């Protein structure tokens, strides 16, 4: 399997935060969802990869090329949408075409107008007159209009209503169909990832907790629910994190099928990505 992105041992230190030797791969033809709570290090990782901040250690290969020395060439094949980035708001939508033509050799005017029509964006409107959701769509379709092979998106669907989000998720799924293109996106809307992500990368406090296929995460992790007596009988190594509620314990386990065989009378439920993150971040460790 070939990767469009390979990050090895990226380390970036701020006075009160350290992104600590993070590895991440984005295979061709896949969508990788980057998850983690506020301040976990997702944006730092993305900016470090793009050379927008400078990690002290680590190596980034994009399309097999060293990002430090080949970023100019790499950038012609990537589309980027960063959280909080915005277009030149005073311009009209159609001016984007003129600006981007000058930047990207492969800029496709026909495709850009096609997307505008498909998503109901009036080219003659000023960007600042568009709603927030429309502006976000505009950013994403602009990122797509020079035929990139890789999309890197920080919170692309935040603040969007479910209908617009769905439209955008459809575009993402179309984008990777040719098995060459990939998407790396960070998001807090974990339910979106349950639909579209092939892999999940979970960062907590600057550390990569896991990088797994979505199917493996959803199939193998689980929540075991039990009373105190049963909780005390669990093998400590089976308890990844736990939370004590008013009436019972919720235990994060990472191989629910074998756990079910071991504790036959236990109630073990499937887990959502959101519950997994919550239990991992808010739960306690046994030792
Ligand atoms: N330029 C900076 N100087 C100092 N600290 C920084 C700087 N940029 C980020 N940080 C710190 O690094 C940590 C990680 O921030 P980062 O933006 O990468 O998190 P995130 O996972 O993207 O969060 P969110 O989900 O809120 O966007 C935070 O504690 C943040 O305050």
Automatic annotation (TrEMBL):
SUPFAM superfamilies: P-loop containing nucleoside triphosphate hydrolases. Residues 2-230 form the ABC transporter domain. SMART domains: AAA. Keywords: ATP-binding, Nucleotide-binding, Transport. GO terms for molecular function: ATP binding. InterPro entries: AAA+_ATPase (IPR003593), ABC_transporter-like_ATP-bd (IPR003439), ABC_transporter-like_CS (IPR017871), ABC_Transporter_VariousFunc (IPR051782), P-loop_NTPase (IPR027417). The keyword ATP-binding applies. This is ABC transporter ATP-binding protein.
């Amino acid at each position: 399997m070939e990767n469009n992105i390979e990050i090895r041992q990226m380390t970036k230190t701020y006075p009160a935060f350290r992104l600590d030797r993070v590895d991440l791969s984005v295979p061709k033809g896949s969508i990788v969802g980057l998850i983690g709570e506020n301040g976990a290090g997702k944006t730092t990782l993305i900016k470090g990869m793009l050379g927008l901040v400078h990690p002290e250690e680590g190596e980034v290969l994009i399309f097999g090329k060293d990002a430090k020395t080949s970023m100019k060439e790499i950038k012609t094949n990537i589309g980027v949408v960063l959280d909080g980035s915005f277009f030149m708001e005073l311009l009209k939508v159609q001016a984007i075409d003129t600006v981007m033509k000058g930047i990207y050799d492969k800029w496709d005017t026909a495709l850009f107008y096609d997307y505008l029509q498909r998503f109901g964006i009036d080219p003659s409107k000023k960007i600042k007159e568009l709603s927030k959701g429309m502006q976000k769509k505009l950013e994403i379709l602009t990122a797509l209009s020079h035929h990139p092979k890789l999309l890197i998106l920080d919170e692309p669907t935040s603040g969007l209503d479910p209908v617009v989000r769905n439209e955008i998720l459809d575009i993402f799924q179309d984008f990777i169909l040719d098995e060459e293109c990939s998407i790396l996106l960070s998001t807090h809307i974990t339910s979106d990832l349950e639909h579209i992500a092939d892999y999940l990368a979970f960062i907590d406090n600057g550390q990569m907790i896991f990088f797994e296929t979505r199917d493996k995460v959803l199939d193998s992790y689980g929540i075991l629910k039990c009373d105190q007596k049963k909780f005390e009988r669990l093998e400590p190594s089976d308890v990844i994190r736990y939370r004590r509620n008013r009436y019972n314990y919720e235990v994060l386990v990472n191989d629910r099928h074998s756990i079910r065989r071991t504790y036959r009378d236990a109630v073990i439920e499937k887990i959502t990505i959101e519950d997994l993150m919550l239990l991992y971040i808010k739960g306690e460790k046994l030792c």
